[in-house]
Design brief:
By secondary structure, this protein is an alpha+beta fold. It is built from 18 helices and 14 strands. The strands form three sheets. Strands 9, 10, 11, 12, 13 and 14 form a six-stranded mixed sheet that branches. Strands 4-3-2-1-8 form a five-stranded antiparallel sheet, covered by helices on one side. A three-stranded antiparallel sheet has the order 5-7-6. Strand 1 and strand 2 form a beta hairpin. Helix 14 runs parallel beside helix 16 and helix 16 packs parallel to helix 18. The longest helix is centred in the last third of the chain and has 18 residues. It is globular, with a radius of gyration of 22 Å. It starts with a strand and ends with a helix. The model has no long low-confidence stretch (mean pLDDT 88).
Length: 452
């Protein structure tokens, strides 16, 4: 349930996949432009005020109105005029903008239900922000992500990854339908309100099969207690599902709440585009300076440097060296964080330190067998090392944990299928709309060539 696609003129917009196609060819539109177009197309004919559009494209960030004007002008240039004349996006003076074209909503084909795992399975749906301040949206998202991470580390649970649960953000759906699509039995849903130094969290655990509420609780605490609340909620959910407490090793928690907020905001930006990656770099650098012993901030900053030279065309050095130093520092701060472990393992593989890399990945899965991104990353490494069947097994496991993943999962699967000489499967995978934002075209061309 990745959401709907929208067709207008020769274009198809897929907000979930982050793509815009013109006559089936990808259009090079930036991250902010996509967010603005999705907001306008989602409500055709309605006037969207400038403030609302800026919230859609720059959530939680104060920006000048001129930035919106520039982005709208770029969108108009990319789209060109409609065949019948006029313009796709009209200006409503002193108020905002309106999408004037005719829209056809293209619903996705319903996926087959996924079978339930052989252990208690759960998905944490995005917590609803009940604060009057829209900037607290990132706080509610961060709370959701942290609960997913905490539950993933509990032995005996099968936990769906963040990317897949956030596909349901803002969607009104029956819990049974969501559980069926994700292949889980239990759902955690809730809300958060943060104001005046306090936080109020409502959470409830639902058995989607019977509709029964297994556990529900409200927490009303000082903001400084937010991580204690997370730990308490996790423990009670695990107890409800497994019948007894199984306490994983303690997590490293930030001591500075501003650093935590910065890290939460940066996680949304790190892999969208070179521009948003630079924004993430500034946020994470600030987080590390505010809290030098915050492992997760070091981990994400390491990934930010790695992506700079691997994906965004920045200089290999000093980015490679800095990334490795930051990843080692993250593991030193919190050796019990699976995320820090697999990020270090990935960077060690790029250094050709394969034995060390294997050790880090093994430790990561010992700490958190539900770490979908780690399984997908290890798949890529295994295929490059010639262990193709192992790579296929890893990426299939990643897809099960993350049924609606980031686009690079499909590239990794396509690479593995190509290496296994299953060229027809590779073509099917690499032709998916989700792959347009990756380097999939190289492998698609190679697969087609192999098929003659």
């Amino acid at each position: 349930m990745q959401g709907s696609r929208f067709a207008f003129g020769p274009f198809v917009l897929d907000p979930g996949a982050g793509t815009l196609l013109r006559n089936d060819d990808p259009v090079a539109v930036g991250y902010r432009g996509l967010k603005l177009l999705a907001a306008l197309v989602g409500r055709p004919g309605e006037i969207l005020e400038k403030a609302e559009l800026m919230d859609a494209a720059w959530p939680g960030t104060a920006v000048e109105e001129g930035n919106l004007t520039v982005q709208i002008a770029q969108l108009r240039k990319l789209l060109g005029p409609p065949a019948e004349g006029g313009e796709w996006i009209s200006t409503v003076p002193r108020v905002g903008y309106r999408f004037t074209g005719a829209i056809e909503q293209l619903d996705r084909a319903k996926r087959k239900p996924l079978p339930l795992p052989d252990k208690p399975s759960i998905a944490v749906l995005p917590f609803v922000n009940l604060s009057n301040d829209p900037e607290q949206e990132a706080f509610a998202d961060g709370l959701t992500e942290d609960l997913i991470t905490d539950l993933s580390r509990a032995p005996g649970l099968f936990v769906i990854a963040r990317n897949s649960t956030f596909a349901y953000k803002g969607k009104a759906m029956d819990v049974r339908a969501i559980a069926e699509e994700l292949g889980v039995r239990y759902l955690l849903e809730g809300s958060a309100r943060r104001a005046a130094g306090r936080v109020r969290i409502n959470a409830q655990l639902v058995d989607a099969k019977s509709g029964e509420h297994l556990w529900a609780e409200r927490f009303d605490r000082g903001l400084d207690d937010i991580f204690a609340v997370q730990d308490e909620a996790t423990a009670k959910i695990v107890e409800a599902l497994l019948g007894r407490l199984r306490t994983p090793p303690p997590r490293n928690r930030p001591t500075n709440l501003e650093a935590y907020d910065l890290c939460v905001r940066a996680r949304k930006l790190i892999d969208e585009s070179p521009q948003t990656a630079r924004e993430a770099h500034l946020l994470l650098t600030r987080a590390v300076s505010l809290d030098p012993d915050y492992a997760e901030a070091h981990r994400w900053l390491a990934m930010n440097h790695w992506m700079g030279w691997v994906h965004w065309g920045e200089a290999v050095e000093p980015n490679r060296r800095i990334a490795l130093e930051l990843a080692r520092r993250a593991v030193a701060i919190d050796p019990n964080d699976a995320g820090c472990r697999w990020v270090l393992g990935n960077l060690l593989a790029y250094e050709r330190s394969f034995e060390e890399s294997d050790v880090e990945f093994a430790k990561a899965f010992e700490l958190d067998p539900n770490e979908a991104d780690a399984w997908a990353t290890l798949s890529d490494i295994a295929v490059l090392a010639g262990r193709v069947e192992e790579g296929l097994e890893h990426i299939r496991k990643a897809f099960r944990l993350n049924p609606y993943p980031a686009s690079w999962y499909y590239l990794t699967l396509g690479e593995a299928q190509y290496a296994a000489r299953d060229y027809e499967a590779a073509v099917e995978t690499l032709r998916r709309e989700e792959t347009y934002r990756t380097s999939s075209r190289r492998f698609l061309a190679a697969s087609l060539a192999q098929l003659g």
